[in-house]
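Question (not urgent): is this output format expected?
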Amino acid sequence: MKIEFFLDYLPWLHVPRSVCTAWDVTPEDRNQRFTAKKRDQPLVLENAPAPIMELYEWHDLSNISMLWTIFMERPYETPHGWCFSYMSEVLLVLAPEGQVRGYIEHPIRAIHGDGYLGPAGKDMESYLEALLCGQMTVSHFARGLGDEPGFMEKRKPIVDLCTHIAGGEDYRDFWESVLL
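Got this back:
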């Protein structure tokens, strides 16, 4: 999926007003987390790879939170690549080779080497498409908690689909961790 399509599809994640009412939340509160803010001026990031620039040049994504992932207002370069979003104690990075990878961002990582957690997508486009697909199905069709009856039966096919979209079996651990 092209990055511009990811940005265009974000409004599709908005939950209908009637569903928000049933959950006792306002649509504005619930749906704000799927809204990219348009920048007045382009963001300048020296040496940033094209996917990072496409995603952030004209958009502030700091409102966007999906599948435990929170996008940053401004990505930054790390020794592992360009960090563009994070999860609890995990940074998601676009590596120089083009793969999206997770790195543990916690002091204990020094004990275990460089903190490499694992791959999330074969490239930025595949990762964003899998993230969008996973959030779409979780928001609209497969809600629930892990101990509820039928939860695993609903979520396992979503893990399979997101794993496939992200690039194949190498990415399964990541998608299981955010969807199950």
